[in-house]
Structure formats: C-alpha cells, structure tokens
Sequence to fold (426 residues):
Amino acid sequence: MTEAIQNRRKEYVIPILIIGALFFVFGFVTWLNATLIPYLQISCELTSFESYLVTFAFYISYFVMAFPSSLVLKKTGFKNGMSLGLVVMAIGAMVFVPAAMTRTYTWFLFGLFIQGTGLALLQTASNPYVTILGPIESAAKRISIMGVANKFAGILSPIILGAVVLEGIDSIKEKIVTMDAVAKAAELDMLSHKVIMPYVVMAVVLVLLALMIRYSALPEVEGDNEESGADEAKKTSLLQFPYLWIGVVALFFYVGAEVVAVDTLISYGNSLGFELAEAKFFSSFTLGGMIVGYFFGIFLIPKFISQQKALTYFSILGVIFTLIAITTDGYTSILFIAALGFANSIMWPAIWPLAIDGLGKFLKTGSAFLIMAIAGGATIPLIYGYLAGLENVGNRLAYIILVPCYLIILYFAVKGHKIGKVFKNK
Fold:
C-alpha cells in the first residue's frame, strides 16, 4: 500500500512542476499591474481613478470570459486549453506595441483585457487540475505550492518592469511640469515607448511556453467522473450547491482585497512622500508576505490545521492588519498593508477546495463561476481608487473598504462552506 502511494506521488511530480511553471507565468503577468498603474498614470496623463482602470480591464475579463472558457475546455481538455490560453496572452502582450507607439490608454486597456482573457482560460483549467490531482483534504497544500511560484514571480515582475519603465521617472515628473505642450508630448512619448521591448519579449516567451505545454507529457485529469455519494448523484443543477455560491462571493471579495493590497501600494507609498524609485519595491513586500503564508500552508495543512480553520484565522488577521494600517502613518502603515499579503496567502488555497468539494460532474462549470469571481479584482480596487480621490477620505482611509471583504470571507470559513454540503465522514 505504501509503495503504491509513493508511486502515485511520483506521478504527480512532473504535472505539478509544469503547472507550477504556469502559476509563475500567472504571477509575472498579473502583478505587472502594480507597476503599470503609476507608469500609465504619468505617461497617459491620468487621474487616480482612471489609472485603476488598469485593474478593471484586466480582471473584468475573468468575469466575461470564464464561462466561455469552461465551454472551450470541454472541447479541448485541460492541456490544450492551457496552451491556447498562453497564445491568447501573447496576443494581448503584442497589443501593447501599438498602444505604446500611439500612447493610447484605450489600447493599453484592450491589451490588458486580452491578457486577462488568456489567463481566464488558463486559470479555469489549472486550478481545478491542481485540486483534483490528489486528495481534496490536501488541496490547499498543493495550491499553496503553486502560490509560491505565483508570488515569487510577482516579486520579480514589478522589480524587472520597474527597472525599465520607471527608471528616472521622478525626474521626468518634475521636468514635464515646466515644459511646453510639444516638449511634454515628446517626453511622454519616449516614456511610453519604454514598455514595448518588455512586452515583445513576454509575447515570445508565452508562445514558447504554449508549445511546451502542447507537446508535454501532462496527463489529462478528468473531474467529471469524480466519485459522488448517493445524495450528490441526485443533484441536477449547480443551484443545489449553495456552498459553492457563497464560495464565489467569498472569492470575489478575497481577490479584490488581494489586488488592493498589492496594486495600490506603490501609489500609496508615493502619496505618503516616498519617491517612485523607492516605492516601486513596495508591492513586492506584500507578495513576499504571501510567500511566507504559503509556506505556512505547505507545512501545516492539513497535518496540524485544517484549511477551514486556517481560513478563519487568516480572515481575522486581515481585519486587524487593515485597522492598524489606516490608523498609522509612514513605513508602519506601508508594512501593515504589506502584511496583508500574509493574511491573504491562505485564502485562495482554502476557499477553492472548500467551494468545489463534492461538485462531481459540475466541476468545470463550478470552477468557471469561481474564476468569474476574480472580477473582484476589477471592482474593489476601482472603489478604492474612487475613495482615494475624495478629499475627505484619501489613500490611507480608503483601505477601510477591505474590512467588509475580510468579514465576508470569515463568514464563508466559519459557516458558509457547510451550507448544503454532504459530509461523507460524519
């Protein structure tokens, strides 16, 4: 029996490494937004609210395209769907070329929407794939491993892109104030062109990864045949799984909170008086906190703590860290927003398996609705941007929007994940 388990674990190694590489790609592309927000705000001359349309365009694509992605996956299977998603992301990266050449914000947003579309397809395939690749009880542990790859890439991406597009940007901000319209336009055009080469390189890498996935030995894991109990087998609609829908709501607010904690931190630091040359590293602090939290999940779940209990405790931490951040100033406030990375780390790995456990033949469709919940990353940061722009609120107090987000996640952890669920081991 022990030998059989060891052989099965060996079979997981290559698939997990391949999916880990994909999660690295997710992280690298997703967390570039933290750098793009202040960069495009300057190069395209945007207001604070307009700059957060970056996150809106990127994350709303998950809402629009997640369900079509599930239909695509039913035709292509997981592996080919992942490959196709990478190609779509490459197309989105190439849209940045005409966007930068013309300094047209609408084109940048269109490119981000296409990239998000590719990621919707990738995430709709890869998240359930990782979840059903082994026992559901240890799914949070496997997703935490994926999260380390995702957030490590997220730490690197703003540093790499920031070194290219934010180089000397503080002096550019000072110079353009005194320039005439023609000289200012020329300076901003040069700034806009800086983004072309990084995104061309990204497109090439994404196409190469698509080919690698297409011809890899990645096995096709089918969730539709997941074993179900007698009560589960009688269910004929996703509406009969209320815990899934509560999970969708929880995931919506979680993603919104996560994106706010990462993508706003550079601009928040700048608003506190830190130069962009220094503030460009702040989003990496949040992602570093997430990696620490992921290692917590890897080593302690489920051996020492259940994924449900971990979600409960980390939701409470989210509320505490937020309240400290909005009642302090300077580096202290920055560090407690960054500490939300630790609080957020266990939420995706725990919400996902708790929400899809027992879906059986509804797994792909249920996963698509969970992916649609990533639209929280489009909505919550936009609300934050609006509040931050209000004179009587400002960047710091605007973080209060995170408190109800964490309370909703806490409800799912304590009660919501049990509603309507059939527990097999009573």
User: Anything to note?
Assistant: Residues 100 and 192 are 5 Å apart (CA to CA).
